[in-house]
Write a structure and sequence with these properties.
By secondary structure, the protein is of the alpha+beta class. It is built from 7 helices and 4 strands. About 40% of the residues lie in helices and about 15% in strands. It comes from Pelomonas cellulosilytica.
Length: about 180
């Protein structure tokens, strides 16, 4: 029987003879050694500025609320599972909102998107799909222009939470369910 792998075997043997002290190849599954991770900057300078302004506006509306950045869409909305959730996730799984403003119980109150002026066609389609899903939820969605310097905090609060019901006297933020 003819061995067709003989030239490959001989080539590997000769290569080992030429370079006997080289390190062995890394295992293909060893991701950390092949791509050594390092910390990176999470927010750009425009996003850091937006984060500061949004934090102040959120503090006026929900003093114990919190601000999340780069939130995947599937964490912001719920969909009925009568259709395939896996299919929905494959269509929307990579979509992210730049900022989500949440109340003290973790419910999303508003979403802020920071579109990039020189977006490519594919990114524009993804942004339109994200807007379409978010608008269907009824959440207030604000588009933040990256060069914008901001208004006063009260104007920001009104713009972000314009659909929120006004608070009556006796509203207690940290007791969502009053005991009887």
């Amino acid at each position: 029987m003819l061995n067709l792998h003989l030239p490959r075997t001989v080539g590997a043997w000769l290569d080992r003879l030429k370079h006997p002290h080289d390190e062995p190849d890394l295992a293909p599954a060893d991701t950390v050694l092949r791509w050594p991770p390092t910390p990176s900057r999470v927010l750009s300078s425009a996003e850091r500025h937006a984060h500061k302004c949004l934090t102040k506006a959120l503090a006026l509306q929900h003093p114990k609320g919190f601000l999340l950045s780069h939130v995947p869409l599937h964490k912001l909305v719920r969909v009925p599972r009568k259709n395939s959730y896996r299919e929905w996730l494959s269509r929307t799984g990579l979509l992210t909102a730049d900022f989500a403003l949440c109340d003290e119980h973790g419910y999303v109150c508003a979403v802020v998107l920071m579109p990039v002026a020189e977006d490519q066609v594919r990114q524009l389609r993804r942004r339109e799909r994200l807007l379409r899903v978010l608008e269907a939820t009824g959440l207030p969605v604000e588009l933040w222009e990256r060069g914008w310097q901001g208004d006063d905090d009260e104007t920001m609060r009104r713009n972000l939470f314009h659909r929120a019901a006004p608070r009556a006297d006796g509203y207690y933020a940290d007791t969502p369910h009053a005991e009887h």
